[in-house]
Design brief:
binds zinc ion; globular; 6 helices; single chain; three-stranded mixed beta sheet; 26% helix; alpha+beta; ten-stranded antiparallel beta sheet; HIT family, subunit A
């Protein structure tokens, strides 16, 4: 028997197989073969082959763009959008156009070519979170940008083109539609109930218990009641906040630990699948949407989006979230 479930934030309907869930062994396995260390531009000693670093964690006695760093942020050599120029919004008949202005950066998460993101040490993961935050703050200072998207593609089938561990940041001159839907849903709920929808989701997760994966003082991770994909995981700050830029040192630590733990649990339960994660943050440079609650969504790449999904926006989820959460909770890390 399946259940139709409606996402309370964006109103999207999904079909969840509640009785005959797919289990980890039912999914195809993907091998991750590392082979290109000898030519990799993200490795030590090849810093001159990338655009100059824009942000970095390195000992003060090492010159910029040389070895010795622990996290390095560089502009993408093949950017989706370019930082120079003005937007020049205009119309072409019924179409809206503007110049492809934006920023596209790469966060090289470790100098070690063969290390996977899920295997970073606590200190390394903390450094990555620190750089996410400092790039977010720095890019937000550019008034042309309205949205900063931080995301990661791990594994070839999830879109990673370099095997050396890295994530990406794209600053956009407009707010993307998926985020806009969440912002509007959150605002409507706030107008109606006077509360944050994401805070209410967290409350419900604590009531139901069976979809929670793990938690610490500042963050909670769970498999949402209305996922789009099997083993989809969300990480949210437990206290209401729309502000990512103001995470303090302790919160950075707790976020790094929880993200690391959830990724290890995914890696162990699902035999190291490819995955994507992205951070849904509030827009920048257009007022403070206080009703929003930032969060991370992690989507293991286990199934393919097919005709029904493309045509309807419905998703068929063959693993119920409480089943997925149980596997993740019980994984021996
Ligand atoms: Zn490398
Ligand atoms: Zn909230
Ligand atoms: Zn979201």
């Amino acid at each position: 028997m399946a259940e139709l479930r409606r996402d309370p934030v964006v109103g999207r309907w999904v079909i969840v197989n509640t009785d005959d869930s797919l289990h980890p062994p039912d999914f195809e396995k993907e091998e991750h073969v590392f082979r290109q260390a000898d030519v990799c531009q993200f490795c030590y000693g090849r810093e001159r082959h990338t655009p100059p670093e824009v942000d970095v964690i390195r000992p003060s006695n090492t010159p910029a763009n040389t070895a010795g760093w622990s996290v390095r942020v560089i502009p993408n050599k093949f950017p989706a959008l370019r930082i120079e120029g003005e937007l020049n919004k205009r119309g072409l008949g019924i179409f809206d156009i503007s110049n492809g202005v934006g920023a596209h950066e790469v966060v090289i998460e470790t100098p070690e070519h063969f290390k996977k993101f899920a295997d970073l040490s606590e200190a390394e993961m903390l450094n990555v979170i620190k750089k996410y935050q400092s790039r977010f703050i720095s890019l937000s200072g550019d008034r042309r940008f309205k949205y900063i998207m931080i995301f990661k593609n791990y594994g070839e089938s999830a879109g990673a083109s370099m095997e050396h561990a890295h994530s990406q940041i794209i600053a956009l001159p407009m707010v993307p539609k998926y985020v806009l839907e969440e912002l509007e849903g959150a605002q409507q709920y706030f107008n109606f109930r006077g509360r944050c929808i994401f805070c209410d989701i967290i409350y419900q997760e604590y009531q139901d218990q069976d979809r929670i994966i793990t938690e610490n003082t500042d963050f909670i991770a769970f498999c949402p009641f209305v996922p789009r994909f099997p083993f989809e995981c969300w990480i949210l700050p437990r206290k209401h906040t729309s502000q990512f830029g103001s995470l303090n040192e302790e919160e950075q630590h707790h976020l790094a630990n929880l993200l690391r733990e959830v990724l290890s649990r995914i890696k162990i339960s699902l035999s190291d699948p490819s995955y994507n994660f992205y951070i849904h943050l509030a827009p920048v440079n257009q007022g403070n949407p206080g009703s929003y609650h930032w969060h991370i969504e992690i989507v293991p790449n286990l199934t393919r989006v097919a005709g029904f999904e493309w045509g309807t926006g419905f998703y068929i989820v063959r693993t119920a979230p409480h089943v997925a959460a149980k596997y993740l909770r019980e994984a021996k890390i």
